Amino acid sequence: MSYQREINPQTLQAISSEAIRKTPFGYFSGLVLIGLFVSAIVIAGIYGAKKKEKYLKDPKVGDVYEVSYTKDGKMMRTLYRIANLTTDSVTFDLNDYEADSRKGLRKLREQYADSYSEKQRLSRAELEEMKSKISNIERL
């Protein structure tokens, strides 16, 4: 039994033409925006990693390193500023304060930008080993 014979041909034509309608482009604009946002994040991450590598290979006095470490089972962050360079070592001024978040590190950078009292000397090899603990390098 065929239902097409029971339906009026004009109604069948109207139903068929409605089924072929295309989806408006505006329906996909949200997906396009999400794709652009994700792409921007990926590009920023790649650029940041390249900048970090470049600055690690050619350090300058005054560079500020954002360093992460574990203290009492909690991830902490602080700032190391290059005070002196030799051919085989780097001397850092260590910031007197630490933060437990990236937001706290930003606040530390703003409020305690000149609070460096302790020094630490690292060989270039030790600095290379410490690379995974460095999240960002700012060159002034």
What does this entry look like structurally?
This protein has 140 residues and is α+β, with helices and mostly antiparallel strands. The chain contains 4 helices and 5 strands. A 5-stranded antiparallel sheet has the order 4-3-2-1-5. It is elongated. The termini are far apart.
Run of helices and strands: HHEEEHEHE
Measured between the Cα atoms of the first and last residue, the distance is 82 Å
Number of β-strand runs: 5
Q: What percent strand? A: 25-35%
Helical fraction: 40-55%
How are the secondary structure elements laid out?
Elements: H1 9-19, H2 29-57, E1 64-71, E2 74-85, E3 89-95, H3 102-111, E4 116-123, H4 124-129, E5 134-138
Antiparallel strand pairs: 1-2, 1-5, 2-3, 3-4
Short recap of the structure:
The chain is of the alpha+beta class and 140 residues long. The chain is built from four helices and five strands; from the N terminus they run H-H-E-E-E-H-E-H-E.
Which descriptors would you attach to this protein?
about 140 residues; alpha+beta; five-stranded antiparallel sheet; 5 strands
